[in-house]
Amino acid sequence: MRGVVAWTALTAAFLAAPTASAATADRTKFGKLADGTVVEAVKLSGANGVVARVITYGATLQAFEVPDLNGKIADVTLGYDDLQSYIDHPNYWGQTIGRYANRIAGGKFSVDGRDYQLPRNDKTNSLHGGTIGFDKKVWRILAVDSGPKAKVVLGLTSPSGDQGYPGTLEVKVTYTLDDQGDLTIDFDATSDAPTIVNLTNHALFNMAGEGAPGGILRHRLTVPASRYTPVNAALIPTGELRAVAGTVFDFTKSRVIEDGIRDGRDAQIVMGHGYDHNFVLDAGKTPQPKLAARLEDPVSGRVLEVLTDQPGIQVYTGNFLDGTLVGKRGHLYRMGDGIALEPQLFPDTPNRPAFGSARVAPGAPYHHRMIFRVSAAR
């Protein structure tokens, strides 16, 4: 599934750099908050030309630079060039999402018989951890390493009661880049009391390059999921696991996103304003990451594979981008200009026991490993 790697820049880069220490990590200042808090950036660079830039504000993947078939580099993630834009015009573009990614109905859930209320920041629901989720926190840099793999480790303490969640949560996110085009993201969390946790990265991709005309509509997408979780008008799963066969949600074989993204004959597309749905991965929750999605731009040949050990992946086609936000290099972002492929537990799992469990407690820590794997294919 990795495709036929055909980067002209790849071979030259390997010849020019010693393989024992080809991947590098460079730490710089990205900006400063109004209270004087410094936000840093760590640039992870692989010998094949792949670059990932992570900033401490939101533990955000701020840039992801990838070669095409001819070695031409493009940043394939939507975002901003400066810190102030992330603060003044917040959106979910590459941030670490928590404590609970996706929606919780009514912002309510129970743990061990106790009820909790979260901020309802998505109409009647709580979304992506609440009003001030992990995406709006400044994380600590715990380690930065170069070597055969380059990595940065970031840490955050979320106190008990943060956004209504119980338990003090200690969180680590580790970004690791190798020379083969794998950006691995490890999420780890421990709590001193029973709570719920569901962490992911919310990058929005355009494999032609962020801001490229046409967005992701002509990209091809594959998702190894024979079922998905349909939603109600509030975008909360109904509880049904519906077969994708014969619908615009069938990505079990590669298909062009444009074929279904605006098909108003499907009530689910109408409610989501496009794709904004969780897909039930056929492999389920696994000990090691497995393929969850494959995204390909047929023009540049750039390929993204998303791997995860989690049971679901949210596919979101940037439906709420309305042309009012100006991103990198002055690009105006519109509906369909990017796609998020977010591995995670199912939305509203704390209120749906049939979906599994999001419970984390002392002695039962949380771990999620996901991989963004890039290559180029004809």
Count of beta strands: 30
Helix content: under 10%
Termini, distance in Å?
13 Å
In DSSP terms, counting alpha (H) and pi (I) runs of 4 or more, how many helices?
3
Q: State the shape.
A: globular
Q: Helix/strand/pairing class, anyone?
A: mainly beta
User: What is the residue-averaged pLDDT?
Assistant: 94
What does this structure look like?
The protein starts with 7 loop residues before the first helix and ends with a strand. It is globular. With 378 residues, the chain is mainly beta. Strands 11-12-13-14-30-24-23-18-21 form a nine-stranded antiparallel beta sheet, with no helix packed on it. The chain contains three helices and 30 strands.
Descriptors for this entry?
378 residues; mainly beta; 9-stranded antiparallel beta sheet; 6-stranded antiparallel beta sheet; 3 helices; 30 strands; 39% strand; globular; disordered N terminus
In short:
The protein is mainly beta. It is about 5% helix and about 40% strand.
Fold blueprint:
Layout: H1 8-16, E1 24-32, E2 38-45, E3 51-55, E4 60-67, E5 73-75, H2 83-88, E6 96-97, E7 103-104, E8 108-111, E9 114-117, E10 126-127, E11 140-145, E12 150-158, E13 169-177, E14 182-191, E15 195-196, E16 200-201, E17 204-205, E18 220-222, E19 227-229, E20 242-243, E21 255-256, H3 267-272, E22 276-280, E23 290-296, E24 302-308, E25 312-316, E26 322-326, E27 332-334, E28 339-344, E29 359-360, E30 366-376
Antiparallel strand pairs: 1-2, 2-3, 3-4, 4-5, 6-16, 7-10, 8-9, 11-12, 12-13, 13-14, 14-30, 15-29, 17-28, 18-21, 18-23, 19-20, 19-22, 22-25, 23-24, 24-30, 25-28, 26-27
